Amino acid sequence: MPVLDLTDLPAACPPGTAWLGLDLGEKTIGVAASDTSRMIASPLTLIRKTKFTDDAQALFRLMDERKVSALIVGLPLNMDGSEGPRAQSCRAFARNLDRIRPVNVAFQDERLSTSAVERFLIEDLDLNRKRRAGVIDRTAAAWILQGALDRLRP
Question: Can you name the CATH fold of 6-152?
Fold first, then answer.
């Protein structure tokens, strides 16, 4: 499947299927899942990066277990909206996934998602640095996925 515009994604996916949100970091992939009505995103898990094929297989296992029909990948744009090396790396990740197995993919602007989530974890949940490290990436993935779900809500 080619990368789709977010607004075209619902038509490409069977109704009643969940989506996964991904926050692609240098060492980890934060993963969040939507419910089957695509209303609510929840943090799911963290994939520690090793080799790309192993990472992809772990992601495909999650997709199969949850009957997921699409991935929403956070796109780390620069503050001026341009794409830098990290955004290009996210696009390459999606292309490489598609080479292994066709998958519906859309991108969601993730500017400031990690800092917003970190602020929430500190101010609202009062988590210390060690506890934040364990949840920040998957929570950022939920933030990204929820942003996409909210954009698509009428």
Answer: Nucleotidyltransferase; domain 5 (3.30.420)
Q: Which conformational region is residue 38 in: left (phi greater than 0), alpha (psi within -120 to 50 degrees), or beta?
A: left
In this prediction, what percent of the chain has a pLDDT beyond 70? 82
Phi then psi for residue 25, to 5 deg, are: -105, 180
In the chain, where are the structural domains located? 6-152
Mean of the pLDDT values across residues 71-86? 86
**Which distant-in-sequence residues (6+ apart) come within 8 Å of 147 by Cβ?**
108, 109, 110, 113
Cβ(58)–Cβ(46) under 8 Å?
Answer: no
- Among residues 9, 23, 138, the alpha carbon closest in space to that of 68 is found at 9
**Of 135, 68, 62, whose CA–CA distance to 106 is shortest?**
68
